[in-house]
Amino acid sequence: MSSSIEIGTDGTGRAVHIDVHELLATRLLVQGNSGSGKSHLLRRLLEESAGLVQQVIIDPEGDFVTLADAYNHVVINAGDYNEREIAAIGARIREHRASVILALDTLEIEAQMTCAAAFLNAMFDAPRAHWFPALVVVDEAQMFAPSASGDVSDTVRRASLSAMTNLMCRGRKRGLAGAIATQRLAKLAKNVAAEASNFLMGRTFLDIDMARAADLLGMERRQAETIRDLERGHFLGLGPAISRRPVSVRIGSTRTSTQSGTHELLPLPAAETAEMRTMLFAEMEMAAVPAPVFEPAPVEAGELMRRIAEQEAETAPPPPGDLVEAVQDAVDAEAIVIATLEDMLADPDCAFHPEAFLYQDFSVRCRMQKIGRVPLDLAAFRRRFALAKGGVFDPTDPKWRAPLDAAARLPDDMLAPFLQIARAAMDGEACPDDDALGRAYGTRSPGRIRRLVEYMEKQGAIVVRSDFGGRRSIGIPELGLSTEAE
Questions:
Q1: In CATH, what is the architecture of 4-251?
Q2: Helicase HerA central domain location, by residue (predicted)?
Q3: Partner of 130 for a Cys bridge, out of 94, 307, 318, 379, CB 3.0 to 4.6 A?
Protein backbone atom coordinates (compact mmCIF):
# COMPACT_ATOMS: atom_id res chain seq x y z
CA MET A 1 0.00 0.00 0.00
CA SER A 2 1.36 3.39 -1.02
CA SER A 3 1.96 5.85 1.82
CA SER A 4 2.12 8.91 -0.45
CA ILE A 5 -0.76 11.40 -0.41
CA GLU A 6 -1.35 14.43 -2.62
CA ILE A 7 -1.39 17.68 -0.67
CA GLY A 8 -1.69 20.13 -3.57
CA THR A 9 0.04 21.34 -6.73
CA ASP A 10 3.17 23.37 -7.47
CA GLY A 11 3.50 26.44 -9.64
CA THR A 12 3.45 24.34 -12.86
CA GLY A 13 0.37 22.37 -11.88
CA ARG A 14 2.21 19.18 -10.97
CA ALA A 15 1.03 17.29 -7.89
CA VAL A 16 2.96 17.72 -4.66
CA HIS A 17 2.94 14.68 -2.39
CA ILE A 18 3.67 13.99 1.26
CA ASP A 19 5.09 10.61 2.20
CA VAL A 20 3.13 9.69 5.33
CA HIS A 21 5.57 6.95 6.30
CA GLU A 22 8.45 9.44 6.22
CA LEU A 23 6.32 12.07 7.95
CA LEU A 24 5.78 9.77 10.92
CA ALA A 25 9.56 9.60 11.41
CA THR A 26 10.38 13.27 10.80
CA ARG A 27 7.38 15.37 12.03
CA LEU A 28 5.86 18.52 10.52
CA LEU A 29 5.73 22.24 11.34
CA VAL A 30 3.21 24.57 9.68
CA GLN A 31 3.39 28.35 10.07
CA GLY A 32 1.20 31.13 8.74
CA ASN A 33 -0.62 34.23 9.91
CA SER A 34 -4.32 34.05 10.65
CA GLY A 35 -6.15 33.63 7.35
CA SER A 36 -3.20 32.12 5.51
CA GLY A 37 -4.89 28.71 5.23
CA LYS A 38 -3.22 26.66 7.98
CA SER A 39 -6.42 24.96 9.11
CA HIS A 40 -7.32 24.19 5.50
CA LEU A 41 -3.88 22.63 5.00
CA LEU A 42 -4.25 20.48 8.12
CA ARG A 43 -7.74 19.41 7.03
CA ARG A 44 -6.41 18.36 3.62
CA LEU A 45 -3.60 16.40 5.28
CA LEU A 46 -6.03 14.67 7.65
CA GLU A 47 -8.56 13.82 4.95
CA GLU A 48 -5.98 12.34 2.59
CA SER A 49 -4.24 10.29 5.30
CA ALA A 50 -7.38 9.19 7.18
CA GLY A 51 -7.22 5.66 5.78
CA LEU A 52 -3.49 5.24 6.30
CA VAL A 53 -2.76 6.09 9.94
CA GLN A 54 -4.42 6.67 13.30
CA GLN A 55 -5.08 10.38 13.83
CA VAL A 56 -5.24 12.35 17.08
CA ILE A 57 -6.25 16.01 16.76
CA ILE A 58 -5.85 18.62 19.50
CA ASP A 59 -8.47 21.14 18.41
CA PRO A 60 -8.61 24.34 20.51
CA GLU A 61 -11.19 26.09 18.32
CA GLY A 62 -13.51 23.19 17.40
CA ASP A 63 -12.59 23.54 13.71
CA PHE A 64 -12.06 19.85 12.98
CA VAL A 65 -15.05 18.18 14.63
CA THR A 66 -16.79 17.98 11.24
CA LEU A 67 -14.28 15.33 10.19
CA ALA A 68 -16.30 12.90 12.31
CA ASP A 69 -19.22 13.26 9.89
CA ALA A 70 -17.23 11.84 6.98
CA TYR A 71 -14.62 9.66 8.69
CA ASN A 72 -14.39 7.40 11.73
CA HIS A 73 -13.16 10.02 14.19
CA VAL A 74 -14.55 10.11 17.72
CA VAL A 75 -15.15 13.61 19.09
CA ILE A 76 -14.15 14.09 22.75
CA ASN A 77 -15.76 17.22 24.22
CA ALA A 78 -13.16 18.02 26.87
CA GLY A 79 -15.56 20.09 28.99
CA ASP A 80 -17.50 16.92 29.88
CA TYR A 81 -14.59 15.22 31.66
CA ASN A 82 -12.13 15.89 34.45
CA GLU A 83 -8.35 15.53 34.26
CA ARG A 84 -8.29 11.93 35.45
CA GLU A 85 -10.91 10.88 32.90
CA ILE A 86 -9.11 12.67 30.07
CA ALA A 87 -5.90 10.82 30.94
CA ALA A 88 -7.78 7.50 30.95
CA ILE A 89 -9.21 8.26 27.51
CA GLY A 90 -5.74 9.18 26.24
CA ALA A 91 -4.42 5.78 27.30
CA ARG A 92 -7.35 3.89 25.77
CA ILE A 93 -7.08 5.43 22.32
CA ARG A 94 -3.51 4.14 22.05
CA GLU A 95 -4.65 0.66 22.98
CA HIS A 96 -7.59 0.62 20.56
CA ARG A 97 -5.97 2.74 17.80
CA ALA A 98 -8.96 5.06 17.63
CA SER A 99 -8.81 8.29 15.64
CA VAL A 100 -10.11 11.07 17.88
CA ILE A 101 -10.65 14.82 17.99
CA LEU A 102 -10.09 16.45 21.39
CA ALA A 103 -12.37 19.50 21.17
CA LEU A 104 -11.24 22.17 23.63
CA ASP A 105 -13.32 25.10 22.38
CA THR A 106 -15.61 25.20 25.44
CA LEU A 107 -12.70 25.68 27.86
CA GLU A 108 -10.69 28.69 28.98
CA ILE A 109 -7.05 28.83 27.88
CA GLU A 110 -5.64 27.53 31.18
CA ALA A 111 -8.04 24.59 31.21
CA GLN A 112 -7.19 23.90 27.55
CA MET A 113 -3.50 23.68 28.36
CA THR A 114 -4.09 21.45 31.40
CA CYS A 115 -6.38 19.14 29.46
CA ALA A 116 -4.04 18.86 26.46
CA ALA A 117 -1.08 18.14 28.75
CA ALA A 118 -2.94 15.35 30.56
CA PHE A 119 -4.07 13.86 27.24
CA LEU A 120 -0.65 13.98 25.56
CA ASN A 121 1.14 12.66 28.63
CA ALA A 122 -1.24 9.70 28.84
CA MET A 123 -0.54 8.81 25.20
CA PHE A 124 3.19 9.25 25.75
CA ASP A 125 3.16 7.02 28.86
CA ALA A 126 1.23 4.18 27.20
CA PRO A 127 2.71 0.66 27.58
CA ARG A 128 5.21 -0.43 24.93
CA ALA A 129 2.68 -2.94 23.56
CA HIS A 130 0.48 0.01 22.53
CA TRP A 131 3.12 2.02 20.68
CA PHE A 132 1.24 2.00 17.38
CA PRO A 133 1.97 4.75 14.84
CA ALA A 134 -0.26 7.81 15.22
CA LEU A 135 -0.28 11.25 13.62
CA VAL A 136 -0.84 13.84 16.37
CA VAL A 137 -2.03 17.17 14.93
CA VAL A 138 -1.92 20.21 17.25
CA ASP A 139 -3.49 23.39 15.92
CA GLU A 140 -2.51 26.75 17.44
CA ALA A 141 0.57 25.10 18.95
CA GLN A 142 1.89 28.42 20.32
CA MET A 143 -0.89 28.19 22.96
CA PHE A 144 0.37 24.84 24.26
CA ALA A 145 4.12 25.46 23.86
CA PRO A 146 4.60 29.21 24.43
CA SER A 147 8.08 30.68 24.18
CA ALA A 148 7.41 32.99 27.14
CA SER A 149 5.14 33.10 30.17
CA GLY A 150 1.76 34.73 29.65
CA ASP A 151 -1.51 35.04 31.51
CA VAL A 152 -1.55 31.43 32.73
CA SER A 153 0.21 30.16 35.84
CA ASP A 154 3.77 28.88 35.59
CA THR A 155 2.68 25.41 36.74
CA VAL A 156 0.19 25.05 33.89
CA ARG A 157 2.61 26.49 31.32
CA ARG A 158 5.42 24.14 32.35
CA ALA A 159 3.15 21.09 32.28
CA SER A 160 1.83 21.93 28.81
CA LEU A 161 5.27 22.77 27.43
CA SER A 162 6.69 19.54 28.83
CA ALA A 163 3.95 17.48 27.15
CA MET A 164 4.55 19.20 23.79
CA THR A 165 8.31 18.73 24.14
CA ASN A 166 7.83 15.02 24.79
CA LEU A 167 5.60 14.75 21.72
CA MET A 168 8.08 16.43 19.37
CA CYS A 169 11.38 15.27 20.90
CA ARG A 170 10.73 11.77 22.23
CA GLY A 171 7.45 10.79 20.65
CA ARG A 172 8.90 9.16 17.51
CA LYS A 173 10.12 6.01 19.31
CA ARG A 174 6.65 5.64 20.81
CA GLY A 175 4.98 5.93 17.41
CA LEU A 176 3.76 9.51 17.97
CA ALA A 177 4.42 11.87 15.07
CA GLY A 178 3.68 15.53 15.81
CA ALA A 179 2.25 17.80 13.11
CA ILE A 180 1.94 21.24 14.71
CA ALA A 181 0.65 24.52 13.33
CA THR A 182 1.32 28.01 14.66
CA GLN A 183 0.49 31.57 13.71
CA ARG A 184 3.89 32.85 14.78
CA LEU A 185 7.18 31.01 15.07
CA ALA A 186 8.44 33.66 17.49
CA LYS A 187 5.72 32.67 19.98
CA LEU A 188 6.45 28.94 19.71
CA ALA A 189 9.06 27.41 22.03
CA LYS A 190 12.26 26.82 20.05
CA ASN A 191 12.95 23.33 21.42
CA VAL A 192 9.50 22.25 20.14
CA ALA A 193 9.83 23.83 16.69
CA ALA A 194 13.41 22.63 16.22
CA GLU A 195 12.45 18.93 16.26
CA ALA A 196 10.44 19.13 13.03
CA SER A 197 12.21 18.18 9.79
CA ASN A 198 9.35 19.04 7.43
CA PHE A 199 8.06 22.58 6.97
CA LEU A 200 5.14 24.25 5.24
CA MET A 201 5.46 28.02 5.56
CA GLY A 202 2.54 30.26 4.68
CA ARG A 203 2.08 34.00 4.50
CA THR A 204 3.57 35.99 7.36
CA PHE A 205 4.43 39.67 7.69
CA LEU A 206 6.60 40.22 10.76
CA ASP A 207 10.33 40.36 10.07
CA ILE A 208 11.26 38.08 12.97
CA ASP A 209 8.87 35.35 11.76
CA MET A 210 9.97 35.71 8.13
CA ALA A 211 13.63 35.42 9.17
CA ARG A 212 13.01 32.25 11.19
CA ALA A 213 10.94 30.73 8.40
CA ALA A 214 13.64 31.51 5.85
CA ASP A 215 16.28 29.91 8.08
CA LEU A 216 14.22 26.73 8.42
CA LEU A 217 13.71 26.60 4.64
CA GLY A 218 17.40 27.18 3.95
CA MET A 219 16.71 30.47 2.15
CA GLU A 220 18.85 33.57 2.22
CA ARG A 221 17.61 36.51 4.24
CA ARG A 222 16.96 38.58 1.13
CA GLN A 223 14.71 35.80 -0.16
CA ALA A 224 12.59 35.92 3.00
CA GLU A 225 10.50 38.72 1.45
CA THR A 226 8.82 36.14 -0.79
CA ILE A 227 7.07 34.69 2.26
CA ARG A 228 5.23 37.98 2.71
CA ASP A 229 3.89 37.79 -0.87
CA LEU A 230 2.36 34.31 -0.62
CA GLU A 231 -1.35 34.11 -1.39
CA ARG A 232 -3.89 32.51 0.89
CA GLY A 233 -3.67 28.72 0.64
CA HIS A 234 -0.11 28.84 -0.79
CA PHE A 235 2.81 27.47 1.20
CA LEU A 236 6.53 26.87 0.76
CA GLY A 237 7.33 23.23 1.54
CA LEU A 238 10.59 21.53 2.44
CA GLY A 239 11.60 18.30 4.13
CA PRO A 240 12.27 14.61 3.54
CA ALA A 241 8.54 13.83 3.44
CA ILE A 242 7.81 16.67 0.96
CA SER A 243 10.76 17.79 -1.15
CA ARG A 244 14.54 18.05 -0.88
CA ARG A 245 14.36 21.63 -2.19
CA PRO A 246 11.87 24.36 -1.28
CA VAL A 247 8.74 23.96 -3.39
CA SER A 248 5.71 26.21 -3.73
CA VAL A 249 2.48 24.36 -2.90
CA ARG A 250 -1.08 25.41 -3.59
CA ILE A 251 -3.14 23.34 -1.16
CA GLY A 252 -5.88 21.30 -2.79
CA SER A 253 -9.59 21.29 -1.95
CA THR A 254 -11.17 19.44 0.97
CA ARG A 255 -14.32 17.36 1.24
CA THR A 256 -15.34 18.74 4.64
CA SER A 257 -15.42 22.24 6.08
CA THR A 258 -15.58 23.96 9.46
CA GLN A 259 -18.86 24.34 11.32
CA SER A 260 -18.86 28.11 10.84
CA GLY A 261 -17.84 28.01 7.17
CA THR A 262 -16.19 31.01 5.57
CA HIS A 263 -17.02 34.58 6.54
CA GLU A 264 -18.62 36.18 3.50
CA LEU A 265 -19.98 39.73 3.26
CA LEU A 266 -23.71 39.95 3.97
CA PRO A 267 -26.12 42.86 3.43
CA LEU A 268 -26.84 44.84 6.59
CA PRO A 269 -30.33 44.58 8.15
CA ALA A 270 -32.89 47.06 6.87
CA ALA A 271 -34.40 47.93 10.27
CA GLU A 272 -34.98 51.60 11.09
CA THR A 273 -32.89 53.22 13.82
CA ALA A 274 -35.81 53.40 16.26
CA GLU A 275 -36.74 49.78 15.62
CA MET A 276 -33.14 48.65 16.08
CA ARG A 277 -32.91 50.59 19.35
CA THR A 278 -36.06 48.87 20.58
CA MET A 279 -34.62 45.45 19.80
CA LEU A 280 -31.31 46.25 21.50
CA PHE A 281 -32.40 48.06 24.64
CA ALA A 282 -36.05 47.16 25.34
CA GLU A 283 -35.40 44.46 27.94
CA MET A 284 -32.71 46.47 29.70
CA GLU A 285 -34.94 49.54 29.89
CA MET A 286 -37.69 47.42 31.41
CA ALA A 287 -35.23 45.88 33.86
CA ALA A 288 -34.02 49.33 34.84
CA VAL A 289 -37.45 50.16 36.35
CA PRO A 290 -37.09 49.26 40.04
CA ALA A 291 -39.61 46.79 41.39
CA PRO A 292 -41.83 48.15 44.18
CA VAL A 293 -40.57 47.37 47.65
CA PHE A 294 -43.18 46.51 50.24
CA GLU A 295 -42.14 47.21 53.80
CA PRO A 296 -44.14 46.79 56.98
CA ALA A 297 -45.54 49.94 58.51
CA PRO A 298 -43.03 51.43 60.98
CA VAL A 299 -43.78 51.23 64.70
CA GLU A 300 -42.79 54.12 66.94
CA ALA A 301 -40.06 53.32 69.43
CA GLY A 302 -42.26 54.27 72.38
CA GLU A 303 -45.08 52.00 71.21
CA LEU A 304 -42.66 49.12 70.64
CA MET A 305 -41.16 49.50 74.10
CA ARG A 306 -44.68 49.61 75.60
CA ARG A 307 -45.62 46.35 73.90
CA ILE A 308 -42.45 44.68 75.11
CA ALA A 309 -43.04 45.91 78.65
CA GLU A 310 -46.61 44.56 78.63
CA GLN A 311 -45.42 41.15 77.46
CA GLU A 312 -42.74 41.05 80.17
CA ALA A 313 -45.34 41.91 82.80
CA GLU A 314 -47.78 39.25 81.55
CA THR A 315 -45.23 36.44 81.46
CA ALA A 316 -43.12 34.97 84.23
CA PRO A 317 -40.70 32.05 84.49
CA PRO A 318 -42.27 28.75 85.48
CA PRO A 319 -42.20 27.76 89.13
CA PRO A 320 -39.05 25.75 89.90
CA GLY A 321 -40.97 22.82 91.26
CA ASP A 322 -43.39 22.41 88.36
CA LEU A 323 -41.28 20.21 86.07
CA VAL A 324 -44.14 19.28 83.71
CA GLU A 325 -44.91 22.92 82.98
CA ALA A 326 -41.21 23.71 82.54
CA VAL A 327 -40.80 20.94 79.97
CA GLN A 328 -43.93 22.04 78.14
CA ASP A 329 -42.72 25.64 78.10
CA ALA A 330 -39.36 24.49 76.70
CA VAL A 331 -41.15 22.61 73.92
CA ASP A 332 -43.26 25.66 73.14
CA ALA A 333 -40.17 27.90 73.17
CA GLU A 334 -38.37 25.57 70.77
CA ALA A 335 -41.33 25.64 68.38
CA ILE A 336 -41.34 29.44 68.54
CA VAL A 337 -37.56 29.55 67.89
CA ILE A 338 -37.99 27.38 64.79
CA ALA A 339 -40.93 29.43 63.52
CA THR A 340 -39.05 32.68 64.19
CA LEU A 341 -35.97 31.51 62.32
CA GLU A 342 -38.13 30.46 59.38
CA ASP A 343 -39.80 33.88 59.31
CA MET A 344 -36.45 35.67 59.44
CA LEU A 345 -34.98 33.62 56.60
CA ALA A 346 -38.01 34.36 54.43
CA ASP A 347 -36.25 37.68 53.77
CA PRO A 348 -33.60 36.90 51.06
CA ASP A 349 -31.33 39.69 52.37
CA CYS A 350 -31.50 38.48 55.97
CA ALA A 351 -28.23 36.54 55.72
CA PHE A 352 -26.30 39.71 54.85
CA HIS A 353 -27.40 41.75 57.89
CA PRO A 354 -24.99 42.33 60.82
CA GLU A 355 -25.14 39.76 63.60
CA ALA A 356 -26.15 42.29 66.27
CA PHE A 357 -29.08 43.48 64.14
CA LEU A 358 -30.21 39.89 63.53
CA TYR A 359 -30.12 39.02 67.24
CA GLN A 360 -32.08 42.12 68.12
CA ASP A 361 -34.67 41.22 65.47
CA PHE A 362 -34.84 37.67 66.83
CA SER A 363 -35.31 38.92 70.39
CA VAL A 364 -38.16 41.24 69.44
CA ARG A 365 -39.92 38.51 67.43
CA CYS A 366 -39.66 36.08 70.35
CA ARG A 367 -41.04 38.60 72.82
CA MET A 368 -43.93 39.28 70.47
CA GLN A 369 -44.79 35.58 70.90
CA LYS A 370 -45.15 36.16 74.66
CA ILE A 371 -41.97 34.36 75.69
CA GLY A 372 -40.81 35.62 79.06
CA ARG A 373 -37.15 35.47 78.24
CA VAL A 374 -35.31 35.24 74.94
CA PRO A 375 -34.61 31.48 74.67
CA LEU A 376 -31.15 31.89 73.13
CA ASP A 377 -28.19 34.02 74.09
CA LEU A 378 -26.04 35.59 71.38
CA ALA A 379 -23.62 32.64 71.04
CA ALA A 380 -26.45 30.08 70.89
CA PHE A 381 -28.34 32.26 68.39
CA ARG A 382 -25.26 32.50 66.18
CA ARG A 383 -25.07 28.71 65.91
CA ARG A 384 -28.83 28.15 65.49
CA PHE A 385 -29.05 30.82 62.81
CA ALA A 386 -26.11 29.27 60.94
CA LEU A 387 -27.82 25.87 61.13
CA ALA A 388 -31.08 27.37 59.89
CA LYS A 389 -29.34 28.99 56.90
CA GLY A 390 -28.04 25.52 56.08
CA GLY A 391 -31.59 24.13 56.20
CA VAL A 392 -31.39 22.58 59.70
CA PHE A 393 -34.09 24.12 61.90
CA ASP A 394 -34.24 21.26 64.37
CA PRO A 395 -30.72 20.09 65.26
CA THR A 396 -32.13 17.22 67.38
CA ASP A 397 -33.51 15.50 64.26
CA PRO A 398 -31.57 12.18 63.88
CA LYS A 399 -31.30 12.87 60.15
CA TRP A 400 -28.74 15.61 60.82
CA ARG A 401 -26.64 13.81 63.41
CA ALA A 402 -24.03 12.52 60.94
CA PRO A 403 -23.70 15.81 58.98
CA LEU A 404 -23.32 17.77 62.23
CA ASP A 405 -20.65 15.36 63.43
CA ALA A 406 -18.83 15.82 60.10
CA ALA A 407 -19.02 19.61 60.59
CA ALA A 408 -17.56 19.51 64.09
CA ARG A 409 -14.11 20.56 62.83
CA LEU A 410 -15.48 23.76 61.27
CA PRO A 411 -16.26 27.10 63.00
CA ASP A 412 -19.92 28.01 63.46
CA ASP A 413 -19.99 30.60 60.68
CA MET A 414 -19.13 27.85 58.17
CA LEU A 415 -21.92 25.52 59.24
CA ALA A 416 -24.47 27.01 56.84
CA PRO A 417 -22.52 26.51 53.57
CA PHE A 418 -21.30 23.07 54.73
CA LEU A 419 -24.83 21.91 55.56
CA GLN A 420 -26.12 23.17 52.21
CA ILE A 421 -23.49 20.99 50.54
CA ALA A 422 -24.35 18.05 52.82
CA ARG A 423 -28.07 18.37 52.14
CA ALA A 424 -27.46 18.42 48.37
CA ALA A 425 -25.27 15.31 48.68
CA MET A 426 -27.87 13.50 50.81
CA ASP A 427 -30.66 14.35 48.36
CA GLY A 428 -28.59 13.54 45.25
CA GLU A 429 -28.91 17.11 43.99
CA ALA A 430 -26.49 19.39 42.15
CA CYS A 431 -23.71 21.14 44.05
CA PRO A 432 -24.79 24.59 45.37
CA ASP A 433 -23.32 27.38 43.26
CA ASP A 434 -21.19 30.23 44.61
CA ASP A 435 -24.21 32.52 44.97
CA ALA A 436 -26.02 30.01 47.18
CA LEU A 437 -22.91 29.42 49.29
CA GLY A 438 -22.39 33.18 49.51
CA ARG A 439 -25.90 33.75 50.87
CA ALA A 440 -25.33 30.99 53.43
CA TYR A 441 -21.99 32.47 54.45
CA GLY A 442 -23.25 36.06 54.42
CA THR A 443 -21.00 37.44 51.67
CA ARG A 444 -21.23 38.52 48.07
CA SER A 445 -17.46 38.29 47.50
CA PRO A 446 -16.41 35.49 45.08
CA GLY A 447 -12.93 35.58 46.59
CA ARG A 448 -14.23 34.87 50.09
CA ILE A 449 -16.32 31.97 48.79
CA ARG A 450 -13.29 30.53 47.03
CA ARG A 451 -11.23 30.80 50.22
CA LEU A 452 -14.10 29.30 52.23
CA VAL A 453 -14.24 26.19 50.02
CA GLU A 454 -10.44 25.88 50.07
CA TYR A 455 -10.40 26.10 53.89
CA MET A 456 -13.11 23.44 54.30
CA GLU A 457 -11.18 21.17 51.93
CA LYS A 458 -7.92 21.71 53.84
CA GLN A 459 -9.73 20.75 57.05
CA GLY A 460 -10.75 17.47 55.42
CA ALA A 461 -14.48 18.25 55.68
CA ILE A 462 -15.04 18.20 51.91
CA VAL A 463 -13.34 17.09 48.69
CA VAL A 464 -13.83 19.27 45.59
CA ARG A 465 -13.85 17.76 42.11
CA SER A 466 -14.10 19.90 38.96
CA ASP A 467 -14.21 18.78 35.33
CA PHE A 468 -12.74 20.77 32.45
CA GLY A 469 -16.13 22.31 31.72
CA GLY A 470 -15.98 24.07 35.10
CA ARG A 471 -18.74 21.92 36.64
CA ARG A 472 -18.09 21.30 40.31
CA SER A 473 -19.12 18.45 42.57
CA ILE A 474 -18.25 18.25 46.25
CA GLY A 475 -17.87 15.06 48.27
CA ILE A 476 -18.09 14.65 52.06
CA PRO A 477 -15.71 11.85 53.08
CA GLU A 478 -17.28 11.19 56.50
CA LEU A 479 -20.70 10.67 54.90
CA GLY A 480 -19.42 8.79 51.86
CA LEU A 481 -21.61 11.00 49.67
CA SER A 482 -21.07 13.50 46.88
CA THR A 483 -23.22 16.12 45.16
CA GLU A 484 -24.02 16.00 41.48
CA ALA A 485 -21.88 18.16 39.15
CA GLU A 486 -23.01 21.76 38.63
A1: 3-Layer(aba) Sandwich (3.40)
A2: 5-77
A3: 94
